[in-house]
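Worked example 3 (structure in, sequence out).
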């Protein structure tokens, strides 16, 4: 009898415990699914046990389309690898529905150190989650850019102390005198860490050499897209991304996935393919219902040098979606097809500063008298990043006989923005070197772009110092 009672009791106990265990499991999975935005879970708090390698980039990038825990870990890994090919996927992760993924992506973009991330990080300063705002501000400290100053001046008054501290640090890294008043006010912040960050930032503002100090040379600033010359960028991507026929076939299948993240990542990777099937898949994706997928597709077509897609991409350059317009204009610059010049000139008048900026870069890549004339006009744009692009593009067009371009650069060499001044003076030095009888002129704007940007020719933008030029530069203009 006692044995039977024990058995019955055991069965009753199991009937109570098992459902609770099942419910507990479901609850845990649900938590992992949405991550939450309260205390840091282990996948955010704990160290990555094994340092990721560049060879793992493709798989880690694919993980960005997983659940939010997987995507957050993937973002952290991409930041550890710090490869510039990760910028596109990380920028898309900045739009993830989970604050955990957005925060991890914002932090990773600062570690990658590519200036394509600046505009997205500026936007993230207005994110609803303080972790995202804080991560964006810290990353802007690693990517000092004067265009971030207005947003950081707002962030320094944020309700969250970590955001105020990071914004103070970022303003000090930028070294812009416009921050002096806000940083002085922050000296009275109730939080010690904020006061200390503000004091250190003010100390940097008062040292003139810090305001002019930047982590990149003008040559690097004029090639921050990583695709100049475009042919070199395409070759780099193909060398680093080995796509066999089976992989391409799987990626093409993913372009028809119901998940837009799957479709975007497939487009991103197909930018390194060369077969006709993947080309057709990307062209079909330009008609996708989601503008972010369309943008990924047009950028992939630009990376591939798909000139046959120029009419489609030129049409999308007038899309109602500003991100798609920006991606289309960037792709047209990579294609360097002068039949798209009207579309790019139209885009250079866009209301979005980011579209105008990329259109200015594209005009420099396409080249020719009409492009040069429009770039000279864009040098008067009220946004510093557009004027900086104009200075780079005038150097890129490198028509040493164009007196208007030289006059524009001389004016920009006294611009109110220190980065614009620095790049303009560098560009003047480059043009001076090219016009010297002792230094051969690389290529004229009238010459075929394929010759001007040939991999066998000398690099246009100093992707590494060109020693033979330096001896001919006026001392004040040396890069």
């Amino acid at each position: 009898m006692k044995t039977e009672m024990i058995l019955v009791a055991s069965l009753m106990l199991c009937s109570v415990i098992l459902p609770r265990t099942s419910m507990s499991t479901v609850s845990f999975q649900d938590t992992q699914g949405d991550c939450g935005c309260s205390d840091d879970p282990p996948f955010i708090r704990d160290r990555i046990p094994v340092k990721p390698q560049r060879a793992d980039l493709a798989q880690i990038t694919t993980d960005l389309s997983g659940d939010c825990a997987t995507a957050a870990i993937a973002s952290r890994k991409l930041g550890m690898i710090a490869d510039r090919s990760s910028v596109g996927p990380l920028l898309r992760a900045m739009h993830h529905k989970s604050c955990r993924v957005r925060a991890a992506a914002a932090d990773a973009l600062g570690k990658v150190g590519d200036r394509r991330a600046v505009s997205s990080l500026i936007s993230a300063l207005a994110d609803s989650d303080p972790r995202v705002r804080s991560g964006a501000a810290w990353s802007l400290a690693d990517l000092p850019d004067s265009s971030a100053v207005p947003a950081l001046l707002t962030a320094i008054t944020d309700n969250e102390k970590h955001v105020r501290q990071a914004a103070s640090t970022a303003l000090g890294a930028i070294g812009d005198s416009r921050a002096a008043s806000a940083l002085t006010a922050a000296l009275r912040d109730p939080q010690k860490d904020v006061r200390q960050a503000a004091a250190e930032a003010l100390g940097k503002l008062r040292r003139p050499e810090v305001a002019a100090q930047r982590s990149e040379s003008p040559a690097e600033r004029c090639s921050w897209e990583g695709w100049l010359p475009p042919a070199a960028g395409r070759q780099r991507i193909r060398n680093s991304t080995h796509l066999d026929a089976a992989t391409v076939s799987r990626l093409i299948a993913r372009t028809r996935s119901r998940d837009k993240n799957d479709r975007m990542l497939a487009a991103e990777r197909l930018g390194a393919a060369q077969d006709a099937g993947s080309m057709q898949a990307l062209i079909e994706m330009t008609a996708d219902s989601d503008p972010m997928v369309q943008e990924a597709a047009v950028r992939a077509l630009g990376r591939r040098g798909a000139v046959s897609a120029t009419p489609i991409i030129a049409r999308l350059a007038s899309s109602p979606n500003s991100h798609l317009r920006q991606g289309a204009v960037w792709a047209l610059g990579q294609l360097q097809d002068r039949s798209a010049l009207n579309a790019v000139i139209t885009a250079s008048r866009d209301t979005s500063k980011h579209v105008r900026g990329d259109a200015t870069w594209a005009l420099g890549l396409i080249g020719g008298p009409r492009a040069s004339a429009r770039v000279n006009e864009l040098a008067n744009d009220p946004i510093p990043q557009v004027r900086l692009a104009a200075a780079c593009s005038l150097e890129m067009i490198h028509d040493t006989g164009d007196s208007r371009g030289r006059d524009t650069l001389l004016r920009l060499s006294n611009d109110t923005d220190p980065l614009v001044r620095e790049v303009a003076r560098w560009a003047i030095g480059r043009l001076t070197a090219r016009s010297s009888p002792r230094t051969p002129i690389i290529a004229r704007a009238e010459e075929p772009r394929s010759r001007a940007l040939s991999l066998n020719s000398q690099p246009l933008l100093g992707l590494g110092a060109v020693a033979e030029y330096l001896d001919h530069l006026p001392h004040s203009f040396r890069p």
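Notes: The CA atoms of residues 92 and 292 lie 8 Å apart. Residues 2-34 form the longest helix (33 residues).
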